[in-house]
Design goal:
Blueprint (H helix, E strand, L loop, with lengths): L1 H33 L8 H20 L7 H18 L4 H14 L4
Helix pairs in contact: 1-2, 1-3, 2-3, 2-4, 3-4
Length: 109
């Protein structure tokens, strides 16, 4: 029984580390966008932002509303979607990524 609880705690720490990494990724991408360093033609940066945003959307969808981190996670997911929206007029990749996120969040940017 004790090993199950330790395993659950380890899973929780790993999941939270993933969420923090996703939040950091979006923050760095937003800063790079301000400096003109994010380009829609650079598919690795687009899909990195997409995967970080998907991680945050999934966390928000599967976490209780009373979780104290919920507001910042949703806010960062919105920032990721806005960033993809800003890039979508330049290339088809960001447009498709944004379409997937809009279906799963039932919102439009």
């Amino acid at each position: 029984m004790n090993s199950d609880r330790l395993l659950d705690e380890r899973k929780k720490r790993c999941a939270l580390a993933c969420i923090r990494a996703s939040q950091d990724t979006i923050a760095v991408a937003k800063e790079m966008e301000k400096q003109g360093l994010v380009c829609a033609a650079s598919w690795p940066s687009v899909y990195t932002v997409f995967l970080a945003t998907v991680s945050l959307v999934f966390f928000a969808a599967t976490t209780r509303v009373d979780n104290p981190d919920m507001f910042t996670v949703r806010e960062d997911a919105d920032k990721g979607m806005i960033l993809l929206n800003n890039l979508k007029c330049h290339d088809l990749g960001p447009k498709r990524c944004l379409a997937v996120l809009e279906v799963h969040t039932s919102t439009s940017v």
